Task: structure prediction
Amino acid sequence: MQSRSENAVDFWRGIALIMIFIDHVPGNFYRDYTLHRVAFCDAAELFVFLAGWSLSYATGGPMTPHPAGRVVIRLIARAVEIYRAQIVLTAIALAVLAATALVRNDTIFLEWHNAGPAFFDPVRTTLGWVLLTHHLWFFDILPLYVVLLLLAPPFVILGRWKPRAALIASLALYCATLTYNWKLPTWPSDNGWQFNPLAWQLLLVLGFLGAELKHDTRRSASFRTIVDWCFPAAWILVAMFAGLTLSGFDPDPLSVPEPRFFFLIDKTNLSPSRVVCLLALVVALHPAFSLARDRLGWAGRWLCSLGRNSLPVFAMGSLLSLVAQLSRFILGGSLTIDTFTVVFGLLGMGWTVWFVEWRSRSPSSPLRLS
Result:
């Protein structure tokens, strides 16, 4: 029998975490075998969509919804938890870069992934990364989540009352963002957010509403009928996007009409092509976990455990990917090094799961300061 802890959301979230780790090591041989090579979207879109799906569970679900006040407090508390993780991650990443620069006697590492302002303009940049207005590259997904969770309460509350109204509101904000190029400011460097929360909120809302409709006994039959009806079309779209991606299709920003973000494959502002591609993949692959669950054995359980502990696993994966980037730069790229770093990363994320779950099962120690 399937354990309660094993479910499709955690399974796919575990796969997304592995792909994010691999994608965060540029030039890595295995990066050619992750989602972005055959689709307009990548693991980041999948992860945000699944975060929205989990949001339904975290706020009680459609049949036993939490009161509005509790929803707001729950989401703010989670945003604070993720903010705390982001601050610790940024501090450790800067320390790793500083240590590498000292050991190698090379200041190039001080400018790695937008870290230069933190070392050469520390007063303003320290304020920036504490206020989430300055991000290190490859460490900018958690700031997106902080803002998404702070934006989520009105969509969750409205979605429980009028799902269609919540979707319309989310789409209106998304379309206005792409039309007028709305974005959150960065400071002290003016290089923009890698993930614009005003656009990416659409995926979070779509995930939330999908979970609500699936588990609402009044609407689930109609929702499943629609999904089944869309299943063949989804596979056609998946094949089409794969063909376009493999052919190198990428519209020229100067040749598309305005508002141009609607016609590009832009990740920062989550162009519609990326949203449609992700939704097609979700519909096409939604039966996969049920079909593979009994065949994957320990591997399936391990993937679910990664997804079940997504925040600590993501944090560890981010740091290990930085170490892998630096190692690859210093030692040079090769299949052997790439294989070693991927295996090292997977073992590190697996150890993180073991430690977090061991700690949660251990009796409280009188020495714990929490």
About this structure: DSSP finds 14 helices and no strands in the chain.
